[in-house]
Specification:
mainly beta, 52% strand, Neuraminidase, 5-stranded antiparallel beta sheet, 31 strands, 4-stranded antiparallel beta sheet, globular
């Protein structure tokens, strides 16, 4: 805990109920990289109710074999980062936050239009990139933004997913994006069917969108299967991960009980097919959702599994490694004095070295109770490193 506290707060012990997390990373090489997330305001700013600290962007820079924090004026919770070089990069986050790095400082960048909750950014070069976010049919809120070297502008609504002028078109929440080349791109997320009051409830679907160098189109809609991650490998299979939902009506008009199980899809150049997943009911540790796909090659990849909508009983998440034939669970280190921790993203710099980021809920530092009720736990960032076939804790 001490390492993470010093990285983020500059001191050993954070304030009770403070929240700092790492959500994404981008390694330029084994010797340089960035990790981003959020932390309480260093100026002690509070929200309008005075309950919570204003959140500022958290930037950690890895250079000379050391992680250190770079202070900025950027506010908000960052969810994705893309570096094109040591002197150029972008980060995006909730509420439309976007920041640009010029080799020295990170600064807020304007002009991205309407807000997205948890956008994802990928850059093809310093002069071209894409942001995937929320989109709503029948409105001006479109799911993709394109960068042309000067500004971010909204791209056309994906072909095959038409909205309508009344605003009752589909609502798309994109959460992952990959760009193998300028002529190929993929994005996944959730397709929510916005309905009128008299229409029956319908489970959200998963959606896979594909870019052909000109337009984004619908590649597949997976019924009742929200998707959370995608990875495409040149000359090898592609993968998409998420969960399969099923609904059960509760008696007395109490709504629906949603049950989930892990879903893994494989793409071999033609269609998407469900892949048998090793953590099924017979494994004794079934997973209800998958995310965090990271494929370094066709025979070397990683995948995070966990329980959707609840804190798992074990303190560490479940991580699996792919060797070209099968997905195998990998032992992760336990972190002392935490109730649980999660992994948000992995980045492998080689077959033998990589990093993972996330957050942990502390049991050593008590949380903070609100006067009007409720409780805010103390949350600290997690930073793991993979070397010589094993994961170890760098900061927690």
């Amino acid at each position: 805990m001490g390492i993470a506290s010093r990285l983020v707060y500059g001191e050993e012990v954070p304030g009770r109920g403070s929240c700092a997390e790492l959500n994404a990373l981008c390694m330029l090489s084994p010797d340089e990289g960035w990790a981003v997330g959020c932390a309480p305001s260093t100026a002690g700013e509070r929200d309008q109710d005075g309950d919570d600290a204003v959140v500022e962007a958290l930037f950690l820079h890895y250079v000379d074999a050391t992680w250190s924090r770079l202070r900025t004026d950027v506010r908000g919770r960052l969810t994705s980062i893309a570096m094109t070089s040591g002197d150029d990069g972008w980060a995006v986050g909730e509420e439309g936050v976007i920041a640009h790095y010029n080799g020295t400082t990170w600064a807020q960048f304007g002009g991205i239009g309407s807000r997205g909750l948890q956008p994802t950014i990928r850059m093809l070069s310093p002069a071209e990139g894409w942001i995937a976010r929320d989109g709503l049919g029948g409105t001006e809120k479109l799911p993709f933004l394109h960068y042309d070297g000067q500004r971010w502008t909204a791209a056309d609504w994906p072909t095959g997913l038409e909205g309508n002028s009344e605003g009752f078109g589909p609502s798309v929440h994109l959460v992952d994006l990959t760009l193998p080349s300028r002529a190929e791109g993929w994005a996944v997320g959730t397709l929510a069917h916005v309905r009128r009051a008299e229409e029956p409830h319908r489970l959200n679907d998963g959606i896979i969108l594909r870019f052909d160098g000109s337009r984004w189109t619908v590649d597949a809609i997976i019924e009742a299967c929200p998707l959370s991650s995608i990875a495409m490998v040149a000359g090898g299979p592609g993968w998409a991960a998420g969960r399969r939902d099923s609904g059960e009506e509760l008696p007395g008009n109490l709504g629906r009980l949603i049950r989930s199980k892990a879903l893994l899809l494989r793409h071999d150049g033609g269609t998407w097919a469900e892949e048998e997943f090793p953590l099924g009911p017979s494994s004794g540790q079934p997973a209800s959702t998958l995310w965090g796909l990271s494929m370094r090659s066709a025979d070397d990849g990683w995948l995070v599994a966990g329980a959707a909508g609840r804190v798992p009983e074990q303190t560490e998440p479940t991580l699996l490694h792919f060797d070209g034939q099968r997905w195998t669970p990998v032992v992760l280190p336990r972190i002392a004095d935490v109730r649980m921790y999660s992994i948000r993203q992995l980045w492998m710099t080689s077959a033998d070295e990589g990093w993972a980021v996330g957050l942990s809920i502390s049991t050593r530092e008590e949380g903070r109770a609100f006067p009007q009720g409720g409780y805010s736990p103390t949350v600290l960032p997690v930073l793991l490193r993979y070397q010589q076939g094993a994961w170890s804790v760098v900061a927690s």
